[in-house]
From TrEMBL:
UniProt entry keywords in alphabetical sequence: Monooxygenase, Oxidoreductase
A GO term, aspect molecular function: monooxygenase activity
Protein name: Antibiotic biosynthesis monooxygenase
SUPFAM superfamilies tied to this protein: Dimeric alpha+beta barrel (SSF54909)
Segments forming domain ABM: 20-92
UniProt keyword Mitochondrion, yes or no: no
Coiled coil: none
Gene3D superfamilies named in the record: 3.30.70.100
Native source species: Streptomyces phaeoluteigriseus
One family name in Pfam for this protein: ABM
Length: 125
């Protein structure tokens, strides 16, 4: 079950490369005390970072969670990585909330998107 049910069901839009992404893949423990509140706080906090472009989330029924954060440049990603409140949440995650996790950081060299146009239905009459 995802903590991101209220999030729009659209991916972060494609941006002009280069930019950076951080892929955070997790398996959580049974101990989730204050996780939702801390997660919401981190989502609010990262939005204040100049160069933050957005975030996508997915959760499998089996418990694998994936969060992808998008950042305009390496400086924005570094600012997020070194934020004191974020660092405290990371420590708590290792101590309580995560059974395991991986973090992958990459520079995006190509980006594109697609959105299906919604067809207008003819008026009944």
């Amino acid at each position: 079950m995802s903590d991101h049910a209220e999030a729009p069901v659209t991916p972060v839009e494609a941006h002009e490369p280069p930019y950076y992404l951080a892929v955070f893949t997790t398996v959580r423990t049974q101990e989730q005390s204050d996780y939702s509140e801390t997660n919401a706080r981190m989502e609010d906090l990262v939005k204040d970072i100049p160069g933050y472009l957005g975030m996508d989330h997915a959760q499998t029924p089996g418990g694998l969670g994936i969060t992808v954060g998008y950042f305009r440049d390496a400086d924005a990603l570094t600012q997020w990585r070194t934020d004191a409140e974020h660092r405290a949440a990371q420590r708590r995650g290792r101590a309580e909330w995560y059974q395991s996790y991986t973090l992958h950081v990459a520079k995006v060299e190509r980006s594109q998107g697609f959105t299906r146009e919604v067809a207008q239905s003819p008026a009944a009459g």
